[in-house]
Amino acid sequence: MAKILMKGNEAIAESAVRAGGLLYFGYPITPQSEIAEYLAHRMPEVGGVFLQIESEVAVANVLYGAAGAGARVWTSSSSPGISLMMEGVSYIAASELPCVIVNIVRCGPGLGGILPSQGDYFQAVKGGGHGDYRCLVLAPCSVQEAVDLMPLAFDRADRYRNPVIVIGDGMIGQMMEPVEFREHSFPPLPPKDWATTGCQGRKPNVINSLYLDPVEEEKLNFKLAAKYEQMKRNEVRFEEYRTDRDLDCLLVAYGTTARVCKTAIQRLDEEQIRVGLLRPITLFPFPEQQIYELAQRAQFVLSVEMSTGQMVEDVRLAVGRTRPVYFYGRAGGMVPSPEEVAAAVKKYRSGGEK
Amino acid sequence: MKVIFKRPESLSSTPTHYCPGCTHGIIHRLIAEVIDELGLRERTVGIAPVGCSVLAFNYFNFDFQQAAHGRAPAVATGIKRARPDLIVFTYQGDGDLASIGMSEIVHAANRGEKFTVVFINNAIYGMTGGQMAPTTMPGQVTTTSPRGRDVKDVGYPIRMCELLSSLRTPAFIERVAVHNPKQVINAHRVLKQAFSYQRDNICFTFVEFLSTCPTNWGMSPIQATKWLEENMLPYYPVKNFKLPEIGEASNAG
């Protein structure tokens, strides 16, 4: 199939439809409203459901109901809206229901602004809502990758019976790039025999997260923890760039920031400064082993983010005390330039702050 | 021997945890009877709220989902939009529906979602230990209104049937009571009407049950029944507020 030029938000929506994500519930918020607008006309064409809901609080609970009834269901929002969904996402994770949530992150905290940010890293990878749970988190760095990750997101949500977050930023959502919708095939999924679809011919199914007996609640907690360990073993995804050599510096960056880092690496090459990049594609599970191993071939590690320092905590956990780990970030909707990243590399190469 | 009385198939054999004199048990049974009579058990999904009836999923013999506090109408929307062939009802108390879930119930009603809401109004928060509800009567003493509900400070109790029937979208909205056999028989008829409308994909259906809470009202069950008659019935009239055939809001206030 030929490539077509599409805006990130619309490409994400189309990819979800093609992946069978035929029930979408959402609430408008910049910079991702094009997803809902696209689906408002697209869903009726494919026999799907598009419904605008009264709030993001309600949206997450509509997802809970629909997922519990066995549907492949999803939503999209941006940071303040995702905060409102956290109640429902906690219930979804606790009740082991599958759904996909796209977060086109904008700067914050509070109402913040509408420009790109990576300030929702903590919320996405450390649980986000109340209680002891994790979401699988996928972070595309291009419109094409966002398109390719949507089918994977739906498959893994069903396979693990867990919410999957696709985290982009305003840049990924708003920019236009050529994309191709490829066929994706996955192994067969187990039947959703736990869903509430009417109890004809079987005992009633109950979707529930209430366990007043601490023995039962702990059992659930350990069961969920075992699932997250399974994700850590099987789902880590990352890209390496220019790491096939000894390095002065290992950059760790995801999403839009990783693209900036690649340009910085090319410029630094011209100055014989050897820099490689590890780009996490899954933020949870985090590619900690790969970062550790690459760090051993570098003098130091630099985490580059559109935040004041969030992922860097996980980079430090991965690297431990084996190498110095530094941070460079822009925030508030400011996107770091390749020159700024190169300057940060040179600063720490010469020993950091003087 | 001829069986003249038995547990409806839609009701499980699990003993309930409800207090003596509580009306949840009667209302559970009415729902089960109606679902049996309409032959809907095998395609029904109930939604349990947060509150005294959070464990309702243990007491019915069909599929159930448990919802976050106040969000049952959102959960029901998800189920019904995913599977319009299923029969879906929410079971919600007054704190759940009229306070924390006010947004969800109003918008589900306004969209005309084709599920049934069973709304239990006992004028108090039960499970958390007797705090003031949005439906608590003026002057009524609760643990958070120890000098009685002061309407100058916190406003008047919210009448949900009246409020929802002001919406333009067609709906079936009726208030019933279960404090004596005559009212129970009427409630059965109304509930069956609501589920029939849903079965026939007609409209949003809402049945409010005036209920007693002897434990948190600090009364015997008999005193509680009398208190309901004297205090709640005049303020919360038992009657139909809206029929789907009437397009404009009848809004009998």
Describe this structure in words.
The complex is a heterodimer of chains A (354) and B (253). Chain A has helices at 8-18, 33-45, 56-68, 79-94, 121-125, 143-160, 170-174, 214-234, 255-270, 288-295, 311-319, 338-349; strands at 4-7, 23-26, 49-52, 73-77, 99-105, 136-138, 163-169, 176-179, 206-207, 238-241, 247-252, 275-280, 282-284, 298-305, 325-329. With 354 residues, chain A is of the alpha/beta class. Helices cover 42% and strands 20% of the residues of chain A. The model of chain A has no long low-confidence stretch (mean pLDDT 97). In chain A, the strands form three sheets. A seven-stranded mixed sheet of chain A has the order 3-2-4-5-7-6-13, with helices on both faces. A five-stranded mixed sheet of chain A has the order 10-12-11-14-15, sandwiched between helices. Chain A is globular and about 70 Å long. Chain A has twelve helices and 15 strands. With 253 residues, chain B is of the alpha/beta class. Chain B contains nine helices and seven strands. A seven-stranded mixed sheet of chain B has the order 2-1-3-4-6-5-7, sandwiched between helices. In chain B, helix 1 crosses helix 7 (181-199) and helix 3 packs across helix 4 (102-111). Chain B is globular. Residues 248-253 of chain B have low confidence and may be disordered. Strand 9 of chain A pairs parallel with strand 2 (63-66) of chain B, so a sheet runs across the interface.
What is the alpha-carbon Rg of chain A in Å? 21 Å
Strand-residue fraction of chain A? 15-25%
Percent helix among the residues of chain A? 40-55%
Low-confidence stretches of chain B: 248-253
Distance between the termini of chain A: 55 Å
Separation, N- and C-terminal Cα atoms of chain B:
51 Å
Give a concise summary:
The complex is a heterodimer of chains A (354) and B (253). Chain A has 354 residues and is α/β, with parallel strands linked by helices.
